[in-house]
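User: Please fill in residues for this 78-position structure.
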């Protein structure tokens, strides 16, 4: 049998860090959850995890990126 190798997804924390790095490219831009969810999907985040992303509220992308890093690495932010 010739089985196709399955592509391993990166850990969720790595995706959160990559997403935060992307958001930091335009730190003063208002955070838009729709754009963030699309980019998260592009980075490989599943629908279950995307639905758990915090709402940005009235904040900029740099503040949202900081929140994502705190979620991804809670021991570092304490």
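Assistant: Residues filled in for all 78 positions:
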């Amino acid at each position: 049998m010739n089985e196709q190798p399955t592509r391993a997804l990166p850990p969720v924390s790595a995706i959160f860090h990559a997403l935060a790095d992307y958001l930091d490219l335009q730190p003063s831009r208002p955070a838009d959850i729709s754009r963030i969810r699309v980019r998260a999907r592009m980075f490989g985040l599943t629908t279950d995890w995307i639905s758990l992303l915090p709402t940005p509220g009235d904040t900029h992308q740099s503040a949202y990126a900081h929140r994502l890093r705190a979620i991804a690495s809670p021991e570092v932010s304490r």
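For context: The chain has a mean pLDDT of 87.
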